[in-house]
């Protein structure tokens, strides 16, 4: 299987975050698995500021559950760091508002990417944003 670089793994994480249903998510996961790329995705919604830690925690738990990472300090820290980086990119739009959407995670060898795709808003006045983080892990 070919080795893909950080750009391809980031694109896969974004694609996972954009999946619209559990069925589509599972189909994508199977497709990317054939390419040698491990993936995970998890939905999330809530008030942004009070939810940052929960979002990071959900990303780490999903990555472990789906076998994207091992239960090591290094792997868990890579997912947590990439997730926080992704969240920091959408923070200016999301402060004080509710967010809802999906977290997508992808890994091949030492490349791991986390993408967050959220609708941000108040009532029906929604904005959308994508944040992306990448880490290299041994």
TrEMBL record:
- Read off the InterPro entries from this record: Regulatory_HutP, Regulatory_HutP_sf
Give the Gene Ontology MF terms in alphabetical order.
Answer: RNA binding
Transferase recorded as keyword: no
Q: Which UniProt keywords apply?
A: Activator, RNA-binding, Transcription, Transcription regulation
Entry's family note: Belongs to the HutP family.
What biological function has been recorded for the protein in this entry? Antiterminator that binds to cis-acting regulatory sequences on the mRNA in the presence of histidine, thereby suppressing transcription termination and activating the hut operon for histidine utilization.
Q: What is this protein called?
A: Hut operon positive regulatory protein
Q: Which organism is it from?
A: Calderihabitans maritimus
């Amino acid at each position: 299987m070919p080795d893909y670089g950080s750009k391809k793994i980031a694109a896969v994480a974004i694609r996972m975050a954009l999946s619209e249903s559990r069925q589509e998510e599972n189909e994508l996961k199977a497709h990317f698995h054939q390419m040698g790329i491990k993936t995970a995705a998890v939905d999330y919604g809530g008030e942004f500021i009070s939810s940052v830690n929960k979002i990071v925690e959900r990303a780490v738990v999903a990555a472990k559950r789906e076998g994207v990472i091992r239960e090591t300090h290094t792997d868990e820290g890579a997912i947590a760091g990439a997730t926080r980086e992704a969240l920091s990119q959408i923070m200016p739009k999301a402060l004080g508002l509710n967010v809802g959407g999906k977290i997508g995670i992808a890994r091949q060898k030492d490349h791991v990417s986390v993408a967050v795709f959220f609708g941000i808003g108040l009532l029906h006045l929604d904005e959308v944003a994508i944040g992306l983080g990448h880490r290299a892990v041994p």
